Amino acid sequence: MIANARMYSVTPEVAALWRSLLAAVLGKVGAPIDIVDHAPPAPISELWKRPALVAAPIPSPSAYGGRGCYWTDLVVRAGSPFQSLEQTFSHRLALTTPESQSGYAAPLYALMAYGGDKPLYREIIEPRFTPMGALTAVIENKAEVAPLDSYALALLTKYAPQLTAQVRVIKSTEPTAIPAVVASGQAPAGVAK
Question: Are 45 and 179 spatial neighbours (Cβ–Cβ below 8 Å)?
Answer without folding.
Answer: no
